Amino acid sequence: MAEGSGTASVADMEAAFQKFAVHGDSKATGKEMNGKNFAKLCKDCKVIDGKGVTGTDVDIVFSKVKAKSARVITFEQFTQAMTELAPKRFKGKGQEEALQSLYGLIAGKEPTNVGVTKVAKASAVDRLTDSSKYTGSHKERFDESGRGRGRAGREEMPDTSGYVGAYKGQGTYDSKVKEDA
């Protein structure tokens, strides 16, 4: 590889390879890359242009360079894949020049997080969690200040006083006994 202006070093390529290799996988070491991350690298770095190189081309090249039973490629296999993709991506350039142009697209890049879930707007969440707007049985679970009442707000607490459920004369025994005496 000729080093000079506009060329990417192997170290830059390896750094980009490692960043994409560990993307989305907490157990990844960065030494090997799966097909999904290889496709992401090709997409994010604009190796896939929709004309010369498509997603299908990338998948085919990945399958071609990986070991038969393997599901991942090493950095060496990755460079081999790039060698195959370069002439397709940069038609009309020589093999070495096309490869350098391709490396230029990839070197120093990191995975982009397009479409990553954003935190919900606070106003929407506040409206949903404002206990003063609750109605029905849910309202019973909170006191006037909006604090939860714990178990007392969730369960109907049984009356363990010993009186029968719907008995209206609860607490009147002593007065009745005194009247009779």
UniProtKB/TrEMBL annotation:
<dbReference type="InterPro" id="IPR008907">
    <property type="entry name" value="TPP/p25"/>
</dbReference>
<dbReference type="Pfam" id="PF05517">
    <property type="entry name" value="p25-alpha"/>
</dbReference>
<keyword id="KW-0963">Cytoplasm</keyword>
<dbReference type="GO" id="GO:0005874">
    <property type="term" value="C:microtubule"/>
</dbReference>
<dbReference type="GO" id="GO:0015631">
    <property type="term" value="F:tubulin binding"/>
</dbReference>
<dbReference type="InterPro" id="IPR011992">
    <property type="entry name" value="EF-hand-dom_pair"/>
</dbReference>
<dbReference type="GO" id="GO:0001578">
    <property type="term" value="P:microtubule bundle formation"/>
</dbReference>
<dbReference type="GO" id="GO:0046785">
    <property type="term" value="P:microtubule polymerization"/>
</dbReference>
<dbReference type="GO" id="GO:0032273">
    <property type="term" value="P:positive regulation of protein polymerization"/>
</dbReference>
<feature type="compositionally biased region" description="Basic and acidic residues">
    <location>
        <begin position="137"/>
        <end position="157"/>
    </location>
</feature>
<protein>
    <recommendedName>
        <fullName>Tubulin polymerization-promoting protein family member 3</fullName>
    </recommendedName>
</protein>
<dbReference type="GO" id="GO:0005737">
    <property type="term" value="C:cytoplasm"/>
</dbReference>
<feature type="region of interest" description="Disordered">
    <location>
        <begin position="130"/>
        <end position="181"/>
    </location>
</feature>
<comment type="similarity">
    <text>Belongs to the TPPP family.</text>
</comment>
<dbReference type="GO" id="GO:0048675">
    <property type="term" value="P:axon extension"/>
</dbReference>
